[in-house]
Amino acid sequence: MTYTSPMPVVDGRIYEGSSLELKDLTMAYGPVDVLRGVSLTVAPGTTTCVIGPSGSGKSTMLRGINRLHEPKSGDVLIHGESALQVKPDVLRSRIGLVFQHFNLFPDHTALENVALALRNVKRMSKGESRRIAHQRLAEVGLAERTDHRPRDLSGGQQQRVAIARALAMEPEVMLFDEVTSALDPELVKGVLNLLAGLGQRGMTMLVVTHEMKFARRAADQVVFMDEGKIVEVGTPEQIFDAPKSERLQRFLSEVL
Ligand SMILES: Nc1ncnc2c1ncn2[C@@H]1O[C@H](COP(=O)(O)OP(=O)(O)OP(=O)(O)O)[C@@H](O)[C@H]1O
Ligand SMILES: [Mg+2]
């Protein structure tokens, strides 16, 4: 294994996750509705995993929550407050989104990738931004890799830099979209352990994933989507051991 243990430094609930609520959220690309009335509650400090076939609207839902793509109707409440009333750049520091591809600056070190975001978004001084960046990188198990550039880090380590960068904004909610699907198999576990650790330490998380074992282990709630709708919501035991709908039964028989 080429990754270091992701959770070496800090213990306890260090994050203050907020609640997240979707209220009848509808989203479209042009005339085509791809999210069709999605309602969902994620309690503060809990982890919800979203599963479902390709094209079912999982990424679109995440993009709507932090308004990378504007919803057509409905609402998103963060800590009870409408996300549609919050300026998009403020919203994106309150709701962190991490993708499959990490989008790091290739010519900057891990430390500078995180520190630059703090200077640009939080208007921090150089010294302060580097101090906080060090802490956040330590939280994701990269205390010893802060001076490496992305090309000198494994894919899993690069993804952890991207996660540290999002955490540095002190988000109230974190959204993850298939963050392990571009990684070599041996690196997947380290990133999933990191995600599970964030959940245990109080972050509110919505995690789109194909990793069913992870969903079973780390989720408080699992959501199954198909064709732009939520078909079933339940505990991991309800979803994986006693799926009600024929659609979910078929999906699980294909992926498990
Ligand atoms: N930029 C876009 N313009 C037009 N249609 C889009 C766009 N992005 C996604 N779609 C369509 O919207 C639907 C939902 O796509 P979405 O990416 O949300 O699915 P997904 O559940 O994330 O799938 P996957 O598991 O493959 O990532 C699909 O039919 C897709 O083709
Ligand atoms: Mg997707």
UniProtKB/TrEMBL annotation:
Subcellular location: Cell membrane
InterPro entries the record matches: AAA+_ATPase (IPR003593), ABC_ATPase_HisP-typ (IPR030679), ABC_transporter-like_ATP-bd (IPR003439), ABC_transporter-like_CS (IPR017871), MetN_ABC_transporter-like (IPR050086), P-loop_NTPase (IPR027417)
Membrane topology note: Peripheral membrane protein
GO molecular function, one term: ABC-type amino acid transporter activity
Ranges where the ABC transporter domain occurs: 20-252
SUPFAM superfamilies noted in UniProt: P-loop containing nucleoside triphosphate hydrolases (SSF52540)
Predominant subcellular localization, coarse grouping: membrane
GO CC, alphabetical: plasma membrane
Organism superkingdom: Bacteria
SMART domains: AAA
Keyword Metal-binding appears in the UniProt entry: no
Keywords from the named record: Amino-acid transport, ATP-binding, Cell membrane, Membrane, Nucleotide-binding, Transport
Family: Belongs to the ABC transporter superfamily.
Protein name: Arginine transport ATP-binding protein ArtM
Gene: artM_2
